[in-house]
Amino acid sequence: MTQSTQIPFHAADGTPLMGTLFGCTIGETRPVLIAGGLGIAQRFYLPFAQWLAAQGHRVMTFDVRGMGASRLPGQQLRDVQADMLTWAQQDFAAAVQTLCQQTDADQVVVIGHSLGAHHAAMAGMPTQSRIAKLLSVAAGSGYWRDWAAPSRNKAPLMLHLAGPLLTPLLGYFPGKRLGMVGDLPAGVMLQWSRWCRHPEFAWGAEPEKLMPVLQTARYPIHALSFSDDDAMTVECTRKLLAATPHAPAHLEVITPQQMGVTRIGHVGTFRRDMEPTLWPHMVQCMALAG
Questions:
Q1: Quick one: CA dihedral 24, 30, 32, 33, positive or negative?
Q2: 90-146 tens-digit pLDDT
Q3: pTM of the predicted structure, to 2 decimals
Q4: How far apart are CA 14 and CA 37, in angstroms?
């Protein structure tokens, strides 16, 4: 079993957060930060993080405020004051800084699953400058009409009815009970819903907040899109890459058949049955050496 250590750290505003460091703190390759998808706790990525560390890489997972191990004891989700940009510019930024400090590295490689890839783009230039490369996994622009059919068919109920009505009423979004995304802080859900209803997503809904930080991204991106993704289409991925015009990007579309499995979907990348084929391919995509 690969050694792991819990890493408490703080965002710039003082909010306590929790990460997990896998493998040794010193190594020849750049450390890897796994930034998770919307509503997905860091424990979901445990098998992949352990496997990657066993290959000799230093790996860190973390939870943003209010989620997973970063939710304070007794804290109610309705009491979490955060939106999407808080997660990116405070919590993700702090995770990058912490991993650099823990490993004495100047830069990290980021594996951004879905929303995690957005965090890199939206974090701002000081954090972006510490990203050596982004491996974008099943990530894309969130305008709901571009989504794959299984998610697109549920979108009107979530974005136009359940989200706007239940979130103010309860003080958070009860996505877990509804089978939609997961439980989310009110500020996160309301901002994300507003973004997803706009044809140009976040940078169209709030251009004054997003356009400046998207323009400063310069790290190279290798984006993996999956032909059977039930949420993000390849068009969504193309739109996300276009939103960071100065970040050199390569888009790769993968079918389950290429990886010797029947299904990958939106979250299947990190299932254990991907270890023989997809996981080694991801390491190649990250170009971790050097």
A1: positive
A2: 999 999 999 999 999 999 999 999 999 999 999 999 999 999 999 999 999 999 999
A3: 0.95
A4: 23
Backbone dihedral angles phi then psi of residue 125, each to the nearest 5 degrees: -60, -45
At how many degrees (to 10) do helices 163-170 and 186-196 cross? Answer: 170
Helix or strand holding residue 204 (H, E): helix 201-205
Residues contacting 288, CB < 8 A, separation 6+? 29, 30, 32, 57, 109
Q: How far apart are CA 281 and CA 58, in angstroms?
A: 18
CB 133 within 8 A of CB 110: yes
Q: What are phi and psi for residue 144, nearest 5 degrees?
A: -65, -30
Which residues sit opposite 19 in a β-bridge?
A: 7, 62
Structure tokens at 31: 């450390």
CB atoms within 10 A of CB 186: 23
Dihedral sign (CA 86, 89, 90, 94): positive
